[in-house]
Amino acid sequence: MNTCVLLVCFAFSSLASCTALKRNEKPIIGVLAQEVRTPQPQKASYIAASYVKFLEAAGARVVPVMINQTLEEYKKLFNSINGILYPGGGVSIVSSGYANVARIFYKLAIEATSRGDYFPVWGTCLGFEELTYLTSGEMLLSRTNTSGVALPLVFTNGTRESRLFKEFPADVLNALASEPITENSHNFSLTLKRYNRNKDLRKFYKVLTTNSDGKTEFVSTMEAYDFPIYGTQWHPEKNAYEWTRPYIPHSPSAVRTTFFMGEFFVNEDSAVRKNLHKFDDEEAEKRSLIYNYNPVYTGIKSAFEQLYFF
Ligand SMILES: *[C@@H]1O[C@H](CO)[C@@H](O)[C@H](O)[C@H]1NC(C)=O
Ligand SMILES: *[C@@H]1O[C@H](CO)[C@@H](O)[C@H](O)[C@H]1NC(C)=O
Ligand SMILES: *[C@@H]1O[C@H](CO)[C@@H](O)[C@H](O)[C@H]1NC(C)=O
Ligand SMILES: *[C@@H]1O[C@H](CO)[C@@H](O)[C@H](O)[C@H]1NC(C)=O
Fold first, then answer.
1. 149 occurs within a structural domain
2. Which ligand is nearest to the CA of 97?
3. Percent of the chain scoring above 70 in pLDDT
4. Cystine design at 237: which of 54, 60, 126, 226 (Cβ 3.0–4.6 Å)?
5. What is the pLDDT of residue 171?
6. Whose CA is nearest to atom 14 of ligand 2?
7. What is the C-alpha separation between 128 and 232, in angstroms, rounded?
8. pLDDT tens across 160-203, in order?
9. Which N-terminal stretch is annotated as signal sequence (predicted)?
10. Pocket of ligand 4 (CB under 6 A)
11. Residues lining ligand 2, CB < 6 A?
12. Ligand 1 nearest-atom number relative to CA 33
């Protein structure tokens, strides 16, 4: 059983009417791979394991989305999974393998969602930046001094009605607003000024939080108005799972933030559980899951504790 049928019944009059809502009980989310800086045999691309753990802790399974595949393969995979995550990293948002695949899935997600087949997309850090590029068709990022700093979020008046934050417990929201528990590792940002001046971005995304490097205010969390598309310039997955940098927060509130962000994406109003895509058969599903690969401990010399190499 891949899905569960929930009967929502209304009995206002003697005529009771029931609407069947299908819920996906076995969500599978794609995580996009990206090029390594110096490729070696069997080590040409990677996914940081923290993104996989982030989704697994919320009850999803993960399929790696490899770069350099054919459009046909991506279409098939799109119709097999229930959402995709674009991780942080260090490749081009315009011309890398990562950028190519992100563009293909973004387009498929927009088309599918427009037909009522909701397909959620999540972008973290580089993934957030990629989303600003895909939506606007322009490189709108500006340099900021935000490479390795933990900040409290500045919530906008859009937070309360947002899908992303509306179910967050008050104590987690308070901690996010008052404690430096969102980790920023980026040299470029979407400034609030540029967001406000760009009609495509302004129409598409609601700004949920902002931050500043002391000089420049930038967008730190956004969600699309009409599509299940979400972006954080900060790293929700690092608090619970990454340890190699001294500025990664690990306080109880910081760790709870990791889980509530994952919980939102996999379980709440993000639409992952509304998506009913599935693999052709169990064999195809098994062959695709991340369990076919073993993460490597790289923490001694990398920004991550563990990486999956492909
Ligand atoms: C992807 O394709 C490019 C260009 O053909 C190649 O240089 C690169 O090594 C490939 N990477 C992977 C992970 O397949
Ligand atoms: C960048 O920010 C850090 C604090 O995060 C500060 O110590 C440093 O002086 C800033 N650098 C510049 C060039 O403003
Ligand atoms: C607050 O929300 C209103 C609409 O409800 C909007 O017009 C206004 O620009 C928002 N203010 C800020 C600071 O975001
Ligand atoms: C930002 O740029 C500095 C200097 O070029 C570099 O050392 C650092 O790794 C960069 N940070 C990120 C997150 O890319």
1. yes
2. 1
3. 94
4. 54
5. 96
6. 145
7. 6
8. 889 999 999 999 999 999 999 999 999 999 999 999 999 999 99
9. 1-18
10. 147, 185-187
11. 145, 149
12. 13
**Residue 87 resides in a domain:** yes
What is the mean predicted confidence (pLDDT) over 26-53?
A: 97
Ligand 3 pocket: which of 154, 156, 157 to mutate (most atoms within 8 A of CB): 157
235 as an active site residue: the answer is yes
pLDDT band at 31 (very low <50, low <70, confident <90, very high): very high
Residue 173 domain boundaries? 27-309
Could you tell me the two tokens for 300? 């001694």
Q: Is the CB of 154 under 6 A from ligand 3?
A: no
Residue nearest to atom 3 of ligand 1 (CA): 68
Contact 99, 92 (CB under 8 A): yes
Cα 105 to Cα 32: distance, rounded to the nearest angstrom: 10
- Name the pTM for this structure: 0.93
pLDDT in tens, 60-105: 999 999 999 999 999 999 999 999 999 999 999 999 999 999 999 9
**How far is ligand 3, taken at its centre, from the CA of residue 241, in Å?**
35
Is 9 an annotated catalytic residue?
A: no
Q: Is residue 6 part of a domain?
A: no
The answer to whether residue 90 is domain-embedded is yes
The CATH number of whichever domain residue 234 belongs to comes to 3.40.50.880
Determine the pLDDT at residue 9.
44
Q: Hey, what amino acid is at 96? A: S
- CA dist 249 and 255 (Å) reads 8
From ligand 3's centre to the CA of 191, what distance in Å?
17
CA distance linking residue 292 with residue 79, whole number of Å:
20
Give the HSE-up count for residue 38: Cα atoms under 13 Å, Cβ half-sphere.
0
- Phi, psi (5° rounding) for residue 266? -85, -35
